[in-house]
């Protein structure tokens, strides 16, 4: 059973999404699925701009108050972890863990302000990998950050492949970021064999550089087209 006590909420901003996924103004006009979106502000900002995004995450089964409480509980743990692994990160845009934390908190507050309305409107769905309840090619673009490949130690090769195949089923194009494992600059242990399996399955894959780099070496995304 999915439990909130096992979640470490850490929401990215709209600008983070632009940079993580190489999103162009043309991309923002597409129908977008954000899978494992967590408490990011991307959906909220896109709604303000009258764009179409559906965000999926098991965390959306909880109330705004429950999610906010969990953010408050885990925030100091994340800051402490950043200090313990400080050399693994690039501190050009945000000079300290606290400065980064303030950026993340701002994004998460935008999410929390939008969440209740967005859930009622069907923009936030309590859905997780690996099975997605959407029809084939329902979306133009699916994006997913900081779950697949990030948690390669926790999630199996089979989970990764099934999740990516499912994203490719429901969307015409998939972009996954980053390709390094959590708190390291090491490429995912699953990446090479996943690329081989996708190519064998007839999928077109491409690794693209991104402007976004916070984890050292974490400046690439995987693009998949079925």
Description:
- With 226 residues, this protein is of the alpha/beta class.
- The chain has a single domain (10-225), classed as Rossmann fold (3-Layer(aba) Sandwich).
- Helices cover 37% and strands 16% of the residues.
- It is built from six helices and seven strands.
- The chain has helices at 14-20, 42-48, 64-84, 97-120, 157-170, 191-200, and strands at residues 32-35, 53-56, 124-125, 139-145, 171-177, 204-209, 220-225.
- It has a seven-stranded mixed sheet with strand order 3-2-1-4-5-7-6, with helices on both faces.
- The radius of gyration is 17 Å and the shape is globular.
- The model has no long low-confidence stretch (mean pLDDT 96).
Secondary-structure blueprint of this entry?
Blueprint: H1 14-20, E1 32-35, H2 42-48, E2 53-56, H3 64-84, H4 97-120, E3 124-125, E4 139-145, H5 157-170, E5 171-177, H6 191-200, E6 204-209, E7 220-225
Parallel strand pairs: 1-2, 1-4, 2-3, 4-5
Antiparallel strand pairs: 5-7, 6-7
Q: Overall mean pLDDT score?
A: 96
CATH architecture descriptor: 3-Layer(aba) Sandwich
Task: Please give the radius of gyration in angstroms.
Answer: 17 Å
**What number of domains?**
1
Any descriptors?
single chain; 226 residues; alpha/beta; Rossmann fold; seven-stranded mixed beta sheet; 7 strands; 16% strand; globular
In short:
The chain has 226 residues and is of the alpha/beta class.
